[in-house]
Amino acid sequence: MGKIVVIGSINMDIATELSEMPQIGETVKGNAAVISPGGKGANQAVAAAKLGGDVMMVGMIGNDAFGADALANLNSVCIDVTHVRSIDATTGLAMILRERGDNRIIVAPGANHAWPSDLPLTEIISEASIVLLQNEIPFPIIEKVVDIAARYHVPTIFDPAPVDHFPVSFLRKITYLTPNESESKQLPDDMLHGKTEALLVTLGKEGVQLCLPHEKVTIPAVPVDVKDSTGAGDTFNGAFAVAITSGKSLQEAVRFANKAAAISTTKIGAQSGMPILTDIES
C-alpha cells in the first residue's frame, strides 16, 4: 500500500439534532451539542488511516484549544502530522444542524484559509502514491498541488465541495473527481477528458454512478439504518484512496468505499462512525 497524502481542511464540529429546521428569525430547541473533530481534509485522512492506510495530513490549525484537540485526534490514529502547521488564528469551525438523518452545515474556515508559502509541497507530493483534495482551503493552493501532482504523475482525488466555478483546465488534470449528485450538476457537462480517468458521482442511498469515457455504471449502495450522514462522503473518499493504493480495480475500489460510507452513517459523528477494516470484511 502506498502513501496517501491528504491536503486540506482541519476543523472542529459543533453539532445538534433538531426536530425541524428553524425559519428565518425563529429560535428552536435542539438536543445537547456534540463537539468533535472534523473538516473534510481531516475526515478523509482519518477514514483512510482507520482502514489501514499510510496517511500524511497537510493542513492548518489555530493556536487554540480546538487546534490542540484536532492535532491530538490525528495523532490518535497514527497519521503523519509533520506538515500540520499551527498559527495565530482560530481553528476552522463547522456548525452542523441534523434533522431526521440529514444535515445542513455552515463552515467558518479560520486557519484553513491562512496557508504559508514555505510548505515543501513538491517534496511532499512527489513522494506520494495518491493525493486527496477538497475545496475547503484556498483554491490557489489546490491548483498548485494538482499541477505538482500532474508533473510527477501522482494520481489525485478531488472532492469539489463546497462546489465552485472551477476552471475546466484544472478539473481535467484530476484523476478521480468525486462530487455528490447536486455538485455534479454544477460542473461542466463533459469532464472525461485530459487526465481524468473517472467521474464518481455519489448518490447517497442510490449508490455511486461511475462515469467512464465510454460507459456509465451504477454501483448500488449497501442498505443500512442511517443515523447520521455527516462525513459519509469523506469516508467514501478516504476508503477509495485506500482501495486504489492497495491495488484494487476501479469498480472494486468503489464497492469497498461504498461499504465504508454505509457503515459510517450508522453512528453519530463524522469520524466516530468511520469503520476499521474488519467492519468492512464482516
Automatic annotation (TrEMBL):
It holds the Pfam family PfkB. K(+) binds at residues 228, 230, 264, 267, 269. SUPFAM superfamilies: Ribokinase-like. Pathway: Carbohydrate metabolism; D-ribose degradation; D-ribose 5-phosphate from beta-D-ribopyranose: step 2/2. Its main location: cytoplasm. Requires a divalent cation, most likely magnesium in vivo, as an electrophilic catalyst to aid phosphoryl group transfer. It is the chelate of the metal and the nucleotide that is the actual substrate. It comes from the Bacteria. It catalyses: D-ribose + ATP = D-ribose 5-phosphate + ADP + H(+). Its EC number is 2.7.1.15. GO terms for cellular component: cytoplasm. Belongs to the carbohydrate kinase pfkB family. Catalyzes the phosphorylation of ribose at O-5 in a reaction requiring ATP and magnesium. The resulting D-ribose-5-phosphate can then be used either for sythesis of nucleotides, histidine, and tryptophan, or as a component of the pentose phosphate pathway. This is Ribokinase. It comes from Listeria grandensis FSL F6-0971. The lineage of its organism: Bacteria, Bacillati, Bacillota, Bacilli, Bacillales.
